[in-house]
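Job type: complex structure
Entries:
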Amino acid sequence: MLNHGGRIHAYAKQYGIATNDWLDLSTGINPNGWPVPGQIPAKIWARLPENEDDLIVRAKTYYQCEHILPVAGSQAAIQLLPTLRTACRVAILSPAYEEHCHCWQQAGHEVVALESVELEQQINQFDVVIVINPNNPSGETFSTERLLNWHRLLLSRNGWLIVDEAFIDVTAQKSLASFPVQPGLIILRSLGKFFGLAGLRVGFVIAHPDMLSLLNEKMGPWSIASVSRWVAAQALADRHWQQQLCQLLPQSAARLTQLLTDYQLRPTGGCALFQWVKTNQAPHIHHQLAEQGILCRLFDNPVALRFGLPASESDWLRLEKALQQVITK
Ligand SMILES: Cc1ncc(COP(=O)(O)O)c(C=O)c1O
């Protein structure tokens, strides 16, 4: 199993700080996510999930697409997709959310991790290319023209382009979701990041109907809980909240960029939900922040830190004070 952000219980033990006392900035999850209503109608718990509820209609409107399949988090699709091909050559953008590489390797494929320029130069050597847009953790972005060109090249050899758009909601104009579906073009979306509903385990695949049928068949019935479908359908329909957050999150991202820059940690890249700082000091800074109950995400290749957004003024203040300590130590 790979390590991920958000492992507060493990760090609480290691540093002897109670789980409730941590400021967790180790994920890219919106800390002020969609406000789930306190009251869940009791009958939802008793009913089996139904495909004909509001979820798919609401998702089609939100993502502006015709063909979409809900999945139990985009992670479910990340795990299933490699099982739909015989052994092949896969290129994955590097650095990247590690589950893509891991799942394709586990399924017996040959996976090569490449930086975007190398990937573009060598694309003819691969059957499947996986890109995260914007990339987690580097924040690198890819234009729709560039991605569609890669897809054209891959399709000519029956290849696939997988575009993981888990972090794209704030910049939805850069998404491929609303483009007509084509064979070999697979878009992944998540309710865990912008909507902050990571615990709901809801994501989507937007692709050609043949691909969606294959995935649906593999997943079997009832893979998303009724209550998750119910909450997700409402979050997707809440235009007012979405518009507000599309304004607020970039402001918070700019504030985080400035704060980190003020403490000699100028981000190398990032997006609305996190900032990525390449520094040889990363392990040291990670440790010093953890001693103060602040968890960011440490990467070793390349050596870097990723900071998610603080949720409140007191959290911003706490981060700033902790950074002062790190710098002056
Ligand atoms: C780039 C990326 N894609 C997909 C996922 C999986 O998210 P989920 O399964 O919650 O949709 C993550 C989780 O961190 C991620 O960072």
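Summary: Residues 73-75, 97, 132, 136, 164, 166, 190, 192, 198, 203 surround pyridoxal-5'-phosphate (CB under 6 Å). The mean pLDDT is 96.
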